[in-house]
Structure formats: C-alpha cells, structure tokens
Amino acid sequence: MRRAAAGGALAVLFLLAGCAAGEVEVPAPAPQGRAADLCRTLVDQVPGTLFGQERIPVRPESEFVAAWGSPTIALRCGVPRPEGLRPDSQLTVVNEISWLPQPADRPNLYTAVGREAYVELSIPPSYTPPAEALVAIGGLIGREIPALPAGEL
C-alpha cells in the first residue's frame, strides 16, 4: 500500500496487491450527522469518468468514497479537518472552492475546505493539470456541500 504524508497528516489511499482486478483499496472516512448526508449525495453524483479514466470499485465499499483509473484518483468525503490547515494556509481557489494542496511544493492531495464537510481528492502526478479534476469535483462540492460562514475553514 502507498502512503502519502501531508503536513503531518497521514492520508492512506491507493492500491493493495491483493485486490480484485480493477478494484482499489481506499480507507473510508466516517462522517457523522449532516456531513454524512451531504457526502452520500456528493459521492452518488460524481462523474463516471475523470481525466478520461472510468470509475472503479473501491474496497471496502463505502458511500463516502469514489475512485477512477490507474494510477488511481481517489475522492473521500467527510474526512477530518486537515492537520496542516491554518488561517494563513496557502489555498488554491478554483471556481470559488478553496483547496488545501499538500504537500505544498508538489501537491497530489487536495482537500476542499470552508465547507460543511471536508472533501479530499488524491490526484497522482501523472494527471496534469490537476485543475481538470478540481473543476469537475469542485462544481459538485459547490452544489452539494454548503459553505461555512465567511472566514471559517
């Protein structure tokens, strides 16, 4: 399994050799209450393709996770607040959605912040520019996950 360290937080995403063909292991978050409801709706509406890659099954099955292609692009909705998120964090804003890129020098993990649920999108470096996925998923986030009050992350 590959692990990507990001700002002190450990994000575990990606392939296990023992998975069935075309299936990836992506640890499922466990959002509660309203965040869980929002995430179910979001994941239910993700596109069937991203970067031209087809959506693939995840293990364990989760209504809070989606994945595409190989190398795997993974989305997890309802993740905890990123440890590296501070009021002075350098954010990438794409179509009014604020993303925390990690690691800062060569990001491959983007977390949508300032919303009622945090949404994590892992984009391997072979998919460029990452903005293509940030736009596609950001549009869904903008429609399905309400913004927090101004100034809150």
Automatic annotation (TrEMBL):
<keyword id="KW-0732">Signal</keyword>
<protein>
    <submittedName>
        <fullName>DUF3515 domain-containing protein</fullName>
    </submittedName>
</protein>
<dbReference type="Pfam" id="PF12028">
    <property type="entry name" value="DUF3515"/>
</dbReference>
<feature type="signal peptide">
    <location>
        <begin position="1"/>
        <end position="20"/>
    </location>
</feature>
<dbReference type="InterPro" id="IPR021903">
    <property type="entry name" value="DUF3515"/>
</dbReference>
